Amino acid sequence: MAELAGLVARLEVAVGRLEGMSGGGGAVAPAGGPVSKFVEEYDDIVSGAVAQYLSLSQKIGGDVQKHADMMKQGFAAVRQVLLLASSHQKPSDSALGPLLQPVSKVVTQVQNFRESNRTSVLFNHLSAVSESVGALGWITVAPKPGPYVKEMTDAAMFYTNRVLKDYKDKDKTHTEWVKAYLSIWTEMQNYIKKHHTTGLAWSKTGPVASASSAPPATSGGCPPPPPPGPPPPALDLSTGGGGDSGADNRNALFASINKGADITKGLKHVSDDQKTHKNPNLRGVGGPVRSGPKPFSPAPKAAAPAQALPPVLELDGKKWKVENHENAQNLMISDTELKQVVYAFKCNKSTLQVKGKINSITLDNCKKMGLVFDDVVGIVEVINCRDLKIQVIGKVPTISINKTDGCHVYLSKDSLSCEIISAKSSEMNVLVPNKDGEFTEMPVPEQFKTIWDGHKLVTTATEIAG
Questions:
Q1: For the chain, N or C: smaller number of CB within 10 Å?
Q2: CA-CA distance, 337 to 428, in Å (whole number)?
Q3: Roughly how many angstroms between the first and final C-alpha of the chain, as a whole number?
Q4: Cis peptide leading into 143, omega within 30 of 0?
């Protein structure tokens, strides 16, 4: 069935070419002749990488296949725009919107499908496609559509890596699916660099594209937003919400304000013998009166220090507990199994070494701590820590750093493909080994720039000035 789906996709591309050569079906090729070179090469991507992706999606089935069917419509909608651009001049921005509407609908449909299927067992597949589907909008980007596609592809890498990790040595179909999907955008970048380097290449001759030359819109689109409601009624100051006396009080206030300078005539004059700052004897009447700042009051008694908890280093079920260690430089866990995890909590000025291969390691509320480990098949997670040094001897797929200030990660040669995910953290550095055995230190970005590119928010790392 998978091979059949790929064959069908190729036949559809061939039919599209024949229709273009004959002048039939949707957009018309220049002078009724064959389609332009850049449309043909786009068809090669569709009949190659895209067809392979569709075939593997059908083999996986379920939500992945449904998503792939939507993406198939998206690639077809982009082809309609390319075919139109090959024989028409670029229209005004206002006229361009309706021409791009089919592509925009597919992007929205793909993203909504992912959001409505968060409980799907194939959620990582859906997320990989949803995060990168915006790459279909490269036809609207100038002057750098190629780098834009690269950014969208990078957004999918987090989820494609999860797919590779989940199905490694289990089902090669999913790993092949990842390679096929990513190859689409790799080939698309090369295609854009060759034919549309600074933006979609519209024809220099022929009629100006208009809504009448656009391909027919697909059904099922979102209706336009409703018009804004009427403005709220004007506030009526003549009626009060605080009882019957509300209007009278407001009228009296406005009448006083309208007196102008005469408003002070009703104030009582205070003589010097009635002023407390000139008559100390009056200060004790009616309670203390302070004219200056509040006097300094002694600080409350410090609370008794919390009793130090005893240090713990023990195996509880499948969890190694490492807790409350101070100045312990030789903590070691050696008798490990793959199903076990390590949880270190409130360890200060200590060093922990983990031998063998385990499932995961978590450091929580640790300060000035060192961690050395061999192999982790899951994740190393750092939460609410400060001044850490982590060294990988073997392999680890993912390191997560959250709410942490100061973290140095020493990678081994076998762990260079590790994913490092950070949030709300600072002073993070990754050290990569050189050929001579030394390490090259590189900072992890802490400052980011976010822009709206017309379709979605695009965030890139920026260097901190100074």
A1: C
A2: 30
A3: 59
A4: yes
CB 376 within 8 A of CB 361: yes
Take residue 452 and report the two structure tokens written for it: 């709206």
What pLDDT score was predicted for residue 272? 72
Determine the Cα–Cα distance for residues 430 and 241; give it in Å rounded to an integer. Answer: 63
Q: Residues 187, 73: contact at Cβ < 8 Å?
A: no
CA 73 from chain centre, in angstroms, equals 25
The answer to whether the beta carbons of residues 391 and 372 sit under 8 Å apart is yes
| Backbone phi and psi for residue 233, each to the nearest 5 degrees, phi listed first | -65, 150
Dist CA 363 CA 420 (whole Å)? 15
pLDDT, tens only, 366-394 = 999 999 999 999 999 999 999 999 999 99
Task: Determine phi and psi for 87, rounding to 5 degrees.
Answer: -125, 0
The C-alpha atoms of residue 104 and residue 155 are separated, in whole angstroms, by: 19
Q: What is the pLDDT of residues 246-258, one digit of tens each?
A: 556 666 666 666 6
Q: What is the pLDDT of residues 57-87, one digit of tens each?
A: 999 999 999 999 999 999 999 999 999 999 9
Burial class (CB in 10 A: 0-12, 13-18, 19+), 275: exposed
Query: How many of the other CB atoms lie within 10 Å of CB of 58?
Result: 18
Taking only the tens place, the pLDDT of each residue in 395-423 is: 999 999 999 999 999 999 999 999 999 98
The whole-model pTM stands at 0.45
